[in-house]
Amino acid sequence: MEATGQLIDMAVLGPLSVRVRGVAWTPTAPKVRNVLAVLIAHADQVVPASSLSTELWGDEPPASASTTVQTYILNLRKHFAAATGRSVAEVSNDLLVTRAGGYLLRSRLTGLDLRRYELLALRGRQALADGDDDGAVRHLSEAMRVWRGRALVDVPVGRLLEARRRQLEESRLVTLEYLVDAELRLGMHREVLTELAALTVEHPLHEGLHAQYMRALHLSGRRAQALEVFHRVRGNLVTELGLEPGPPVQRLHQAILNADSDVDGWSAEHRPLVGPRPSPAGRP
Predict the structure, then answer these.
(1) Average pLDDT of 240-265?
(2) Which single residue of 60, 89, 200, 210 has CA 20 to 30 Å from 77?
């Protein structure tokens, strides 16, 4: 929504943030923040009022939940009206719209970090599909720079926001894997080491990240450390899940043992692994 020629900038890829003409207008009331976070995270989708109630109070909402949700929506409309100099009616028509059974936040006239990230990630994936690693690195790097920390990091989350937060964090990891994969093919082995070292500690069961770290270390002439990374992730998987690493990581391990310099050839056949291995049945 334009405010005298400027955009309302909204962000959830990190701390919740609302800015108008460079001035912070992020709500401070906890439950109003929760409602806004849900609406931004599901921009351009109708969020049922019942879902907002569940997000705020769980399975035992108060009798006044429906009326209270309406009050929070009105408070947000007044907040945006004050920020933009528009009337509450204009905000209701153009930005925070009532739909049958729920509410919809329109992103068309806002600067939404989530939309910028999705567009840049899509461009990066298209560049990869076209075999353009340079273009992929450019777009995917820009996509990663949109993030300012963990999604919704300063908003207490219920079931709805937690599901969306996990979806966004998984998307971030997949995008990062594709970025590192392209960087490695371009010979940027040493440039990715620091980030991969931290990510493998943060995600001890993520085979894809560990495989990329192994490749980067091996291609940087640090074969012994690459083998140590394999043994670390194998130990984590066996201890936590009772699983051995998957065949692609096993083959990469064997290639490093054999001092095979063509681990980039391995990469061409095995695209980034997505996410940690699932727990076997019966395990938490």
Answers:
(1) 86
(2) 60
Gap between the Cα atoms of 14 and 55, Å rounded: 19
> Which segments of 130-186 does DSSP mark as H helices, in order?
133-146, 159-185
| Per-residue CA distances from 3 to 16, 72, 105, 218, 275 (Å) | 20, 22, 16, 53, 41
CB-neighbour burial class of residue 107 (10 A; exposed 0-12, middle 13-18, buried 19+): middle
Nearest Cα residue to 34 out of 5, 3, 68: 68
> Minimal CA–CA distance to 168: which of 280, 31, 43, 278?
43
Whether 280 has a pLDDT exceeding 60, the answer reads: no
| 268 or 209, higher pLDDT | 209
Q: Give dist(CA 48, CA 63) in Å, integer.
A: 17
| Angle subtended at Cα 156 by Cα 205 and Cα 278, rounded to the nearest 5 degrees | 20
Concatenating the DSSP letter of every residue in 57-72 gives HTTS--TTHHHHHHHH
Q: 69 CB contacts (<8 Å, ≥6 apart)?
A: 35, 49, 52, 53, 56
18 membership: H or E segment, kind and range: strand 17-20
- Look up the pTM and report it: 0.83
